[in-house]
Write a structure and sequence with these properties.
Layout lengths: L1 H17 L1 H31 L3 H38 L1
Helix pairs in contact: 1-2, 2-3
Main location: membrane
Pfam families: AI-2E_transport (PF01594)
Membrane topology: Multi-pass membrane protein
C-alpha cells in the first residue's frame, strides 16, 4: 500500500511540474523497481540468508502463494526451511 501511495504522489508531482509524459515515466519507473525488487532482489536476499538458491525461494513463494493464498506467501520460506531440515534429517 505504501508503494502505491508513494508512486501516486510522485506521479502527481511530476504531472504538475512536467506534464503527463513525466507522470507516466515516473509510474513506469516505480513499476520496474517494484518488479525487480519483488522478483529478483528479495528472493536473492532470502536465498543468501537461508542458504538456498534464489530460484528455489522464488518457486517456494509462488507455490505456497498458489496453495495457501496470501498467508502462504509469508510462510513460504520458513516452511521450505522446515521441509529441507526434515528431509535432511530423514535421509540420515
Amino acid at each position: 500500500m505504501g508503494g502505491i501511495a508513494t508512486a501516486s504522489l510522485a506521479a502527481l508531482v511530476a504531472l504538475s511540474a512536467k506534464g503527463p509524459l513525466a507522470a507516466l515515466l515516473v509510474l513506469a519507473g516505480y513499476g520496474v523497481i517494484a518488479l525487480l525488487e519483488g522478483k529478483v532482489l528479495i528472493p536473492y536476499i532470502y536465498g543468501r540468508t537461508v542458504g538456498f538458491h534464489p530460484a528455489l525461494v522464488l518457486l517456494a513463494i509462488f507455490a505456497f502463494g498458489k496453495l495457501f493464498g496470501f498467508l502462504g506467501i509469508f510462510l513460504a520460506v520458513p516452511m521450505t526451511i522446515l521441509g529441507a531440515g526434515i528431509l535432511k534429517h530423514w535421509r540420515r
